[in-house]
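Ex. 9. Protein: Adenine deaminase.
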Amino acid sequence: MEHVRDLTLLPKAHLHLHFTGSMRPSTLLELADKYGVRLPDALTAGEPPSLRATDERGWFRFQRLYDAARSCLREPEDIRRLVREAAEEDVRDGSGWLEIQVDPTSYAPLLGGMIPAVEIILDAVEAASRETGLGMRVLIAANRMKHPLDARTLARLAVRYADRGVVGFGLSNDERRGMARDFDRAFAIAREGGLLAAPHGGELTGPASVRDCLDDLHASRIGHGVRAAEDPRLLKRLADRQITCEVCPASNVALGVYERPEDVPLRTLFEAGVPMALGADDPLLFGSRLAAQYEIARRHHGFTDAELAELARQSVRGSAAPGEVQDKLLAGIDHWLAA
Ligand SMILES: [Zn+2]
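Predicted structure tokens for Adenine deaminase:
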């Protein structure tokens, strides 16, 4: 029998993890207790809630659960704890680089405004990085349910903090709402400020939403992007330009984008040469973290250890990590495979 290497020891970069969604379930219960918040039963059941985001009602329910969890983050010490624990979990799963995604607008009211919220988050990231040794940066993400002018304001703010740990600009929430091009100015501001453009696309809607991210927002990475698998020409375009798709298999199955883990088109993207960075998206709601995504590739898609190592390399190359960090992680991947 083939020797099976431990996937938690495979060095990798984690490029798709949302802020509140990274919380440990046990921490959520403790914080809810601290503030006397009555959580929805789906969040206290001790197992991931069953979700279905393939229609707007299902997506709304998912967002409501997310909002309930977020309402338990009220003080700077909660933010510090969340970030430190996210870093600890990532280290445990073999991550050597984490880019965490946050819309500071949602945290601003309880943390004294936008600027304080961003500074508390960035300070927490710096502290967690120092304490755990994990390289960490931040993507600031706009919400496509809000007005494009809000996204512009956020992009300016993100650029202003580029030297304090912000490396990218994202766009999240329901892809069925609004057009990507409504946010083109915000993304232009971010790109001109040196940030990488990493909007969500090709998750809830098809290949056209990925094309919009490329054409209108000049994305250099796509959050999810899996639905590109439905369009061979688009796959070729992503491969030719080496646009990394932040693919989150457990999330896709939890939200009903695909029925079963084996239906997530990991093979299709991989064989087409589209670089991928597997991510956990919202482990709080989907029940699995980073290494588990690689486990899905191994177990349900027959990825060999050499192919899993290549997936890990793609995650590192798609990251905003400095050259020397990338080199170290890539050497670690070779070492893992040689062992
Ligand atoms: Zn996401």
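Check your answer against this statement. The two ends are 16 Å apart (CA to CA).
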